[in-house]
């Protein structure tokens, strides 16, 4: 354990207290060993480093932005979702902290083991339901029992949102979230042992004028296979951005290949004065700068691109490409 370093002001205050008799040096020596003792609760074992917690926070900040866009479009009202906190605690403590009756979405994330829990405060869930049914988005904090229609609507609403969760995790691991259960009573839910460490991401959510929390509970067993990837070193690697850039380049190239361009065959060019132009009449001849035994030039969107020769195919005027244009000085 590192030693605490006192500032100069603290040293002066300590010496002053000792000289005036306000503090006894012998008592200070007795208290020093006690200050070095820290209480450690083995039931609250911290299994994730600060670095890993920051990575999880970064992933879910991206998820909150995607979720904001999804709910704004689907509910057609003001929606704001942002990460409020990321904590690790025993599963039992998390279950005790949520309401006795709430909205619980349990989904698997293949190929990872275990399941993840998304808990939506009833105030928020009913505001979403009210908007879907054409209301103003009024919420309620009380759930007695959900009808089959309400259950179906809420299940569909949260199930569609899992597509955003898949995208948020895409930079770390490809997962396939599938909604498996929909519950309203956390007492009937036992995903892991009570003392199992879980990461709880709290999302501060506003739907219209209604505010509440959406909590995402991820057990340690789910994250265990990918813990090495939740590090700054992994995020700094360039392989993944390079792969993503290659995919973007291929998509852009595919779109460009289908774009239409203007192609023109140039028989020749000539410079004449305005006076000559105004004096042109039928049967006059303009001499071009193109020799009859030299290939013509093809332009692509006003840029010279190929050397060509004129011809005919199927009773249509055509040109044959001879070679790529290299410039007049190179021929």
SSE layout and pairings?
Layout: H1 8-20, H2 25-35, H3 50-75, E1 79-90, H4 91-97, E2 103-110, E3 115-120, H5 122-132, H6 148-168, E4 176-183, E5 197-207, E6 210-219, H7 220-223, H8 232-236, H9 239-257, E7 263-266, H10 274-278, E8 296-300, E9 303-313, E10 316-324
Summarize it:
The chain folds into two domains: 44-237, Chemotaxis protein chec, CATH 3.40.1550.10; 263-279 and 287-330, Surface presentation of antigens (SPOA). It is built from ten helices and ten strands.
Provide the structure class. Answer: alpha+beta
CATH class of the largest domain: Alpha Beta
What's the gyration radius in Å? Answer: 36 Å
Total of domains? 2
The second-level CATH architecture of the largest domain is 3-Layer(aba) Sandwich
The strand line-up of the biggest sheet is 1-5-6-3-2-4
Task: Tell the overall outline.
Answer: elongated
Strand content: 25-35%
Q: How would a crystallographer describe the biggest sheet?
A: 6 strands, antiparallel
Write out the CATH superfamily name of the largest domain. Answer: CheC-like
Head-to-tail CA distance between termini: 79 Å
If helices are DSSP runs of H or I spanning 4 or more residues, what is the number of helices? 10
How many strand segments?
Answer: 10
Subcellular location: Bacterial flagellum basal body; Cell membrane
GO biological process, one term: bacterial-type flagellum-dependent swarming motility
Membrane topology: Peripheral membrane protein
Pfam families: FliM, FliMN_C
């Amino acid at each position: 354990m590192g030693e605490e370093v006192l500032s100069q002001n603290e040293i002066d205050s300590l010496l002053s207290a000792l000289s005036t008799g306000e503090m006894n040096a012998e008592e200070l020596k007795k208290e020093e060993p006690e200050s070095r003792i820290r209480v450690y609760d083995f039931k609250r074992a911290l299994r994730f480093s600060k670095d890993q917690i920051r990575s999880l926070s970064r992933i879910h900040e991206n998820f909150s932005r995607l979720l904001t866009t999804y709910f704004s479009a689907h509910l057609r009202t003001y929606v704001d979702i942002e990460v409020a906190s990321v904590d690790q605690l025993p599963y039992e403590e998390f279950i005790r902290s949520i309401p006795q009756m709430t909205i619980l979405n349990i989904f698997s994330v293949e190929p990872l083991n275990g399941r993840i829990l998304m808990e939506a405060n009833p105030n928020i869930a009913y505001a979403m339901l009210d908007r879907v049914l054409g209301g103003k988005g009024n919420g309620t904090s009380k759930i007695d029992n959900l009808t089959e229609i309400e259950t179906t609507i809420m299940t569909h609403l949260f199930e569609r949102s899992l597509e955003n969760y898949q995208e948020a995790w895409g930079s770390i691991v490809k997962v396939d979230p599938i909604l498996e259960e929909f519950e309203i009573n956390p007492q009937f839910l036992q995903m892991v042992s009570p003392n199992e460490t879980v990461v709880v991401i709290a999302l501060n959510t506003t739907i219209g004028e209604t505010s509440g929390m959406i909590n995402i509970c991820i057990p340690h067993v789910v994250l265990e296979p990918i813990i090495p990837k939740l590090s700054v070193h992994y995020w700094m690697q360039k392989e993944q951005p390079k792969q993503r850039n290659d995919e973007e380049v291929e998509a852009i190239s595919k779109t460009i290949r289908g774009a239409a361009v203007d192609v023109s065959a140039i028989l020749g060019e000539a410079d004449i004065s305005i006076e000559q132009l105004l004096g042109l009449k039928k049967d006059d001849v303009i001499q071009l700068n193109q020799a009859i035994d030299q290939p013509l030039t093809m332009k692509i969107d006003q840029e010279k691109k190929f050397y060509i020769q004129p011809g005919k195919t199927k009773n249509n005027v055509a040109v044959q490409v001879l070679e790529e244009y290299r410039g007049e000085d190179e021929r």
